[in-house]
């Protein structure tokens, strides 16, 4: 388990974990942010069953998709997009591009010019 926290700090951390989860952030991403914290137990203590994945509102997803597309079309790599937007993995980028029918760039071999 993580280091011991005073009750007030633990409650503040737990509240933030619940907020992030309710915003549609994956448990994996939340765990990466907070370190050794049992995310599932925290959510259950607050009446949330983690298997009931909460989807972000459509407007929020569309906004995030537009950010992904803008970065991708400006030449950013998948890794740069993931790190910039705090995404959980490459599939988030791939799905966003596919939803909006954005053609994928070909894989460029090092040293090769497009």
In a nutshell, what does this entry contain?
The chain has about 110 residues and is an all-alpha fold. It has six helices and no strands.
Descriptive report:
By secondary structure, the protein is mostly helical. It has 2 domains: 7-45, no CATH class; 58-99, no CATH class. 57% of the residues lie in helices and 0% in strands. The protein is built from 6 helices and no strands. It has helices at 7-22, 27-34, 39-45, 58-73, 78-85, 90-99. The longest helix is centred in the first third of the chain and has 16 residues, at 7-22. The model has no long low-confidence stretch (mean pLDDT 83).
What descriptors fit this protein?
114 residues, mainly alpha, 2 domains, 6 helices, elongated
Q: State the major sheet.
A: none
Strand fraction equals: under 5%
Domain module count = 2
| Alpha-carbon Rg, integer | 17 Å
Query: Globular, elongated, flat, extended or rod-shaped: what is the shape?
Result: elongated
pLDDT < 50 runs, ≥5 residues:
none
Mean pLDDT: 83
Along the chain, the helix and strand elements come as HHHHHH
* Gap between N and C termini: 49 Å
The tally of helices reads: 6
Q: Could you outline the blueprint of secondary structure elements for this entry?
A:
Elements: H1 7-22, H2 27-34, H3 39-45, H4 58-73, H5 78-85, H6 90-99
């Amino acid at each position: 388990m993580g280091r011991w926290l005073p009750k007030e700090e633990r409650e503040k951390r737990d509240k933030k974990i619940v907020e992030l989860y309710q915003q549609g952030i994956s448990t994996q991403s939340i765990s990466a942010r907070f370190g050794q914290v049992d995310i599932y137990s925290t959510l259950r203590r607050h009446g949330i069953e983690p298997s009931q994945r909460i989807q972000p509102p459509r407007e929020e997803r569309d906004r995030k998709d537009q950010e992904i597309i803008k970065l991708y079309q400006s030449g950013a790599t998948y890794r740069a997009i993931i790190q910039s937007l705090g995404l959980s993995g490459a599939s988030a980028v791939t799905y966003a591009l596919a939803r909006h029918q954005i053609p994928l760039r070909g894989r460029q071999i090092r040293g090769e010019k497009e």
